[in-house]
């Protein structure tokens, strides 16, 4: 029902002004986001044992760390987009190691904080 409601509101908005987002649309999207996040947590919990919301949060922080590490490595020229796009085998082993070093040195207040 929530998806259908959001779909209808977005369709109505698309027929009006694409540059203006009404409060009704913003509220509907926020409500949908909350419902979808709850669904994701339930789904992930059913597929993979998630002990607590805190553990799930830490897992998300590690994922963000990996993403930020890859972005930083691209920006500094350590990696190329072609290496990522081609799933370079050596790169698949390098990214987790690079993320660990980056998490300890560059993002020391992040999820790998030793304190």
From TrEMBL:
InterPro entries assigned to the protein according to its UniProt record, in alphabetical order: LST-2
Coiled-coil ranges (or none): none
Gene Ontology cellular component annotations, sorted alphabetically: early endosome membrane
PANTHER family: LATERAL SIGNALING TARGET PROTEIN 2 HOMOLOG
Protein name: MAX dimerization protein 3
Gene source species: Hypotaenidia okinawae
């Amino acid at each position: 029902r929530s998806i259908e409601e959001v779909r209808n509101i977005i369709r109505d908005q698309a027929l009006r002004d694409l540059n203006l987002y009404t409060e009704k649309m913003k509220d509907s999207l926020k409500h949908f986001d909350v419902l979808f996040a709850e669904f994701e947590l339930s789904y992930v919990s059913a597929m993979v044992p998630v002990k607590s919301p805190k553990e799930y949060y830490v897992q998300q922080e590690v994922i963000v760390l990996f993403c930020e590490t890859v972005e930083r490595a691209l920006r500094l020229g350590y990696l190329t987009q072609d290496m990522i796009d081609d799933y370079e085998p050596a790169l698949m082993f390098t990214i987790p190691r690079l993320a660990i070093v980056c998490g300890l040195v560059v993002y020391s207040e992040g999820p790998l904080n030793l304190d």
